[in-house]
Write a structure and sequence with these properties.
70% helix, 154 residues, mainly alpha
Length: 154
């Protein structure tokens, strides 16, 4: 039962993306948010997406005939396929396995810190978001962005 409950919760995580995923949206923001979600749920994403697609509103009426309900189910399958193909097309299907471009030591050097800690962890999260928003970016691009952000705060 716990596994089933966890799967439903993962599916619910896709629900806020309905407008963005199912109806279009801004690419970088989508890449980042979707990448972060997929990093959390990992290999469960396909099943969670299927459940989310099945939860997607439709006109299925239990009193109607089966052929109309089959048309609605086919629409839901197409939504699933469209979103799955978008995730694969964005290169996010195994995003949780992607290694960060920049390590903690590099972050500490840019921030001029003597030891790690919560500040480094916060910057690691920011850099993962940057990496998701800039999939073709390099480690040097990432460090340049970090230096710019740091300079703005100083």
């Amino acid at each position: 039962m716990d596994e089933q409950r966890r799967l439903y919760l993962y599916a619910a995580l896709f629900l806020p993306f309905r407008k963005t995923l199912y109806e279009g949206g801004k690419a970088r923001k989508l890449n980042c948010k979707l990448g972060l979600l997929l990093r959390e749920i990992k290999g469960f994403w396909r099943v969670a997406l299927m459940v989310s697609a099945l939860l997607y509103p439709s006109d299925i009426n239990h009193a109607e005939d089966i052929s109309k309900n089959n048309i609605q189910l086919d629409k839901k399958r197409k939504v699933f396929e469209m979103v799955k193909n978008a995730i694969v097309g964005l290169g996010l299907e195994e995003v949780w396995e992607v290694k960060p471009l920049v390590n903690g030591k590099d972050i500490m050097n840019v921030l001029q810190l003597k030891s790690g800690g919560p500040v480094v962890k916060v910057w690691q999260q920011k850099l993962i978001q940057w990496q998701l928003a800039h999939p073709s970016g390099t480690a040097e691009d990432c460090l340049d962005w970090m230096r710019q952000k740091r300079a703005k705060r100083s």
